[in-house]
Known about the structure:
Layout: E1 2-11, E2 14-24, E3 29-33, H1 40-47, E4 55-60, E5 63-64, H2 70-78, E6 80-83, H3 95-106, H4 111-124, H5 140-152, E7 158-162, H6 170-187, E8 190-195, H7 198-204, E9 207-212, E10 215-220, H8 231-237, H9 241-251
Parallel strand pairs: 3-8, 3-9, 6-7, 7-8
Antiparallel strand pairs: 1-2, 1-4, 4-5, 9-10
Amino acid sequence: MITIKNLEKGFNGDMILKGIDATFRKGKTNLIIGSSGSGKSVFLKCMLGLFNPNSGDIIYEGESLLEMDTERKSDLREEMGMLFQHSALFDSMTVEENIMFPLRMFTRMRKKERTERSDELLERMDLTHINNKKPSEISGGQQKRVALARAIVNNPKYLFCDEPNSGLDPQTATVIDNLIHEITVERNITTVIISHDMNSVMEIGETIVFLKDGVIAWEGTNQEIFKTENEAITNFVYSSNLFRKVREAQNQGL
């Protein structure tokens, strides 16, 4: 679990995050949504320890990130997995080598153990048939599955995903959403997802935090999002004609 307490962050006097309180639970897909400029990326970078907040706290399983020494922060980073927006695979490595990279960097596993761990994930992600291909030789959806496999190969306690469906078609995006959710539940990971994709919100939004102008304007679940009268979130959600029609159909009892 990750607990955020009164988090504030600004640059050159311009406050981006203005007193954020939130809880991201273990075994759940926790989504942070909002328009561009709402503070999502800054929030994520604070949680990752890339930005130092002006005030407030970020607590991992009861332990303050801000009070950790360098060694403990390094240990915590090894407990994190990261799925980047554009996959960020190494072009010179094969699919299998990309997945094994964190094991080579951060563990003392023997090659046989690394291969076994990689093979397990290749099968789980349905990638066994492309294990020797380079990223340029596979599709965008396959690249995202490789990146997800790499993110969890170290069995992280925390998984962070930055716009995981960026650039994917709706069908492939749903596959990625479902994989993230299944892995979160199977491995009891605390998963935090930055997204603006309403399909992801409705598909796997077990906990949703909606940021607007650096504050939490609404929070709830994907079951509650259609029922809320909060104007900020309804304006964001129903900017899509599809979701407006769903709301109207629900109100009419269809």
